[in-house]
Design brief:
Helix 2 runs antiparallel to helix 3 (30-42) and helix 2 crosses helix 4 (47-69). The protein has one domain: AhpD-like, CATH 1.20.1290.10. The protein is mainly alpha-helical. The N and C termini lie far apart (53 Å). 73% of the residues lie in helices and 0% in strands. The longest helix is centred in the last third of the chain and has 23 residues, at 47-69. The chain is built from four helices and no strands.
Amino acid sequence: MDKAALAEGAISKKHKELIAIAVALTTQCGYCLEVHRKAAVAAGANEQELAQATFVAVALRAGAALTHGTHLITDPA
């Protein structure tokens, strides 16, 4: 499944690996981070692209915290 999902296709291997990095950052899987970082670099990803994939993960994860946090707040009145 992993090989088929990450193979070159309509989305390039490099971009699939960057997606995998963002997912691994969100799931906090250290093993996946290392595997997909190496694969992304091998597929041509640079540090700027790795940083931007990180920012996407941060935005989504922080967004989830904000969204779920609003359910904790009740009407103070």
